[in-house]
Design goal:
Layout lengths: L1 H20 L2 H6 L4 H4 L10 H4 L22 H9 L1 H7 L8 H5 L11 H5 L1 H6 L3 H8 L2 H7 L8 H5 L19 H9 L2 H7 L5 H7 L1 H8 L7 H5 L19 H6 L24 H38 L12 E2 L3 H25 L7 H4 L7 H26 L1 H7 L6 H14 L14 H25 L1 H7 L2 H32 L9 H4 L1 E2 L4 H17 L3
Antiparallel strand pairs: 1-2
Helix pairs in contact: 5-6, 15-16, 19-24, 19-27, 20-22, 22-23, 22-25, 25-26, 25-27
């Protein structure tokens, strides 16, 4: 018996020496088939001892706890713990997915970047989300993934991999505020657009639309990509089942705009400047792009020439006439000053809040758009200012009808033939073409052009603004192309009006040497400027002096 024990000990020692002389995987493979399976998995380079402590003892001790996946994948484990899956697991949900549910056994799991793994994602997620998986399989994305297209988006491309959060979470890539960026990962790629024949301007055209601008400002209620195209069952517009099929657009858009597209076809929605736009929109844009530079440029030249002429006449001309004491001239009654104050406030607020929608990233827009995700401050302010301006316009028209005094004062602003002669003469004089300064009326072309520009701009901005405000009613009764036209006119008219106020009005009440630093008529009603009769006298005096100078 003692001899048999010695032999057994020698055999055991020789087996242990042989096992230690081999690699751990080879030694484990003598008994465990998993060591062969692991060679084709993502853990091929991981030694058995990493996950199986005290494996060298034979026979293996039972009940030795194995380290969790977080030992090597700490960041991934932390992401999973914060996700909806991790929260459900901590809450005791037995169906909550763990690492092995999605990735499989530690000995057989495939790399997550492998085409086989990506292709199987819908089935993997479908184990718990069967209805969503069925919708995805029937979509353009699911069909492409089933064909083995490696660039086709699957579940993790939109929802994330381990840190999957509910759509209601602001940090989720499928939340309302991040849908545009998530879809834009593929649909803003020029390379993918060329490879699959997609339109490369979908994100750009969306960003330029009201939906895109409002979403960029932080609006939580405006439509995004999923609102129109769907979430999982995304289909091409040519498919009758698609939510963006022409026959289904009234129902799709009608979720936010009841009645839209019932009487007229809605037409193209993703419109890029110069592509797919109604002809009227294109022509109006061209017209404004000519009108705005021409008008503002003419104003700048007029005012610059006037300023230079007055500067030379007051500062550098020898033998200048002695300064006269100009008497205050009544320019505005108290009710007119009240109208002017309300008009100035409403116009300033309209410009600020209006351009804040177009340029939400600018620093001056921050005080308005910062609160957009909580409450529509910008839109509310814009509409309030619009109502104020309309009230001022109504009060102005009413005052002209009711008050003979105001009506008589207003008649001085009625256009007449002589205004053209004055304007042409002043332009020629300011441009240096003519050496004779023309006589200027008490209410000249300067005031008249300004007044009637305000009237014209108010009518245009009110008409187009009301169409944009009550867009649902417009879409229910009129073609969408009229709303597109109103949007274009509203924008360019706002640019023209803003530049006109800055260049034309601010010069005449602030920077004109005759009134600098400020014409106080809007406060006191009186303007301390050279009366028009005085200007005529100075003009005649200059003409006489020019005739006396020998040539």
């Amino acid at each position: 018996m003692r001899t048999l024990g010695v032999l057994a000990a020698l055999w055991s020692a020789s087996w242990g020496a042989r096992g230690l002389a081999q690699k751990p995987e080879a030694a484990c493979g003598d008994c465990h088939e998993q060591s062969k399976q692991i060679q084709a998995s993502a853990h091929a380079r991981v030694e058995c001892s990493t996950c199986h402590p005290k494996h060298e003892a034979y026979p293996h001790a039972a009940g030795i706890p194995k380290p969790g996946c977080g030992q090597c994948h700490g960041r991934t484990a932390a992401d999973h713990a914060r996700s909806v899956h991790g929260r459900a697991l901590r809450a005791g949900d037995p169906a909550a997915p763990t690492c092995t549910v999605c990735h499989g056994s530690a000995h057989e799991l495939k790399p997550a970047t492998a085409a086989e793994f990506r292709k199987a994602e819908p089935e993997t997620c479908g184990m718990c989300h069967s209805q969503v998986a069925d919708e995805f399989r029937s979509s353009v994305h699911g069909a492409a993934a089933a064909r083995g297209v490696i660039d086709a988006p699957v579940c993790t491309n939109c929802h994330g991999e381990h840190s999957i959060l509910p759509p209601t979470s602001a940090a989720s890539p499928v939340s309302r505020t991040h849908i545009r960026e998530t879809c834009g990962q593929c649909h803003s790629s020029v390379q993918l657009a060329r490879r699959f024949g997609l339109s490369a301007d979908r994100i750009i055209s969306f960003d330029a639309s009201f939906h895109g601008l409002a979403g960029k400002s932080g609006s939580q209620s405006v439509a995004n990509c999923a609102s129109c195209h769907g979430v999982h069952s995304i289909l091409p517009s040519s498919d009758p089942r698609s939510s963006i099929h022409p026959k289904n657009l009234p129902a799709t858009c009608g979720r936010c705009h009841p009645g839209a597209g019932r009487r007229f076809a809605l037409g193209t929605t993703h419109q890029l400047e110069g592509r797919g736009e109604p002809a009227a929109v294109v022509w109006v844009r061209y017209a404004y792009r000519i009108l705005i530079p021409l008008t503002i440029g003419l104003m700048l030249l007029h005012n610059l020439g006037d300023w230079v002429r007055k500067l030379l006449g007051r500062r550098f001309r020898s033998g200048a006439a002695p300064a006269r004491v100009w008497q205050p001239e009544l320019r505005m009654y108290w009710f007119e000053r009240l109208q002017h104050a309300l008009l100035a406030v409403s116009f300033t607020l309209l410009v600020w809040s209006g351009f804040a929608l177009k340029y939400p990233d600018q620093w001056w827009a921050w005080p308005l758009v910062h609160w957009e995700q909580y409450w529509p401050v910008r839109g509310t302010l814009h509409r309030t200012a619009a109502v104020m301006m309309l009230a001022v316009a109504f009060a102005h028209v009413t005052s002209l009808v009711v008050s003979r005094r105001l009506r008589s004062h207003w008649q001085a602003l009625w256009p007449r033939r002589g205004d053209i002669t004055e304007a042409v003469g002043a332009l020629l004089y300011n441009f240096g073409v003519s050496s004779r300064k023309p006589p200027i009326s008490a209410h000249s072309y300067v005031e008249k052009a300004e007044y009637w520009a305000v009237v014209w701009g108010t009518v245009i901005m009110a008409a187009t603004g009301l169409m944009l405000w009550f867009n649902t009613l417009v879409l229910a009764w009129l073609p969408k192309s009229l709303l597109d036209l109103a949007t274009t006119v509203h924008l360019y008219e706002a640019i023209l009006a803003t530049l006109s106020i800055v260049v034309w009005h601010f010069y005449s009440v602030i920077f004109d040497p005759d009134v600098y630093p400020l014409d106080t008529a809007f406060l006191t009603g009186y303007s301390v400027r050279p009366p028009r009769a005085e200007i005529r006298l100075e003009t005649h005096a200059e003409e006489s002096a020019e005739r006396e100078v020998p040539r």
